[in-house]
């Protein structure tokens, strides 16, 4: 989501090569969809770093752009960073999102535009804001 908000023509975009796009996306989506959606988004960069740390072959499978951003995002995790990430309640969900994100990066794959997902996104947003039944 954070990448959608970046001006592709702006030279200032290099700032968002770090994990800022994850934080930006999570910050924007959290009020709409809640923490169950926002937290994995906030953690998906850390999930990439974790995966590269524990599986060196994974780095070779990344797109060229993801390899560049991996370095800019801090590279491999330290043992302490890895253990703290693994202990987070959102670890499993963040890893699932990372996997989906990787599978979505297929060059020339035709996918529906964002309008296709409007009804689903609207329903999810309404569900998040609906009062819980007592």
Structure description:
The chain is mainly alpha-helical and 134 residues long. It has a single domain (2-129), classed as Hypothetical protein af1432 (Orthogonal Bundle). It has seven helices and no strands. Helix 1 packs antiparallel against helix 2 (35-54). The longest helix has 20 residues, at 35-54. Residues 11-18 have low confidence and may be disordered.
Proportion of residues in extended strands:
under 5%
Mind telling me the CATH superfamily name? Hypothetical protein af1432
- Backbone CA Rg: 16 Å
Task: Decide which structural class fits the backbone.
Answer: mainly alpha
- Helical content class: 55-70%
Number of helices: 7
User: Could you tell me how far the N terminus lies from the C terminus, measured between alpha carbons in angstroms?
Assistant: 34 Å
Instruction: Tell me, briefly, the overall form.
Output: globular
Give average pLDDT, whole number.
84
**Count of individual beta strands:** 0
Compact description:
The chain is mostly helical and 134 residues long.
Describe the structure using short key phrases.
mainly alpha; globular; Hypothetical protein af1432; 134 residues
List the helices and strands and how they pair.
Blueprint: H1 20-33, H2 35-54, H3 56-61, H4 64-72, H5 79-87, H6 91-103, H7 118-129
Helix pairs in contact: 1-2, 2-6
């Amino acid at each position: 989501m954070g990448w959608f908000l970046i001006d592709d023509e702006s030279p200032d975009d290099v700032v968002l090569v770090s994990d800022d796009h994850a934080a930006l996306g999570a910050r924007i989506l959290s009020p709409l969809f809640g923490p169950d959606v926002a937290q994995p988004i906030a953690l998906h960069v850390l999930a990439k770093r974790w995966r590269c740390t524990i599986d060196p072959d994974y780095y070779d499978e990344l797109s060229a752009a993801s390899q560049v951003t991996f370095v800019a995002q801090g590279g491999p995790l330290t043992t302490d960073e890895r253990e703290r990430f693994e202990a987070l309640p959102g670890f499993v969900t963040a890893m699932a999102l990372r996997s989906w994100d990787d599978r979505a990066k297929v060059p020339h794959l035709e996918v529906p535009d964002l309008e296709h997902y409007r009804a689903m996104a609207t329903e999810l947003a309404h569900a998040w804001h609906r009062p819980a039944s007592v």
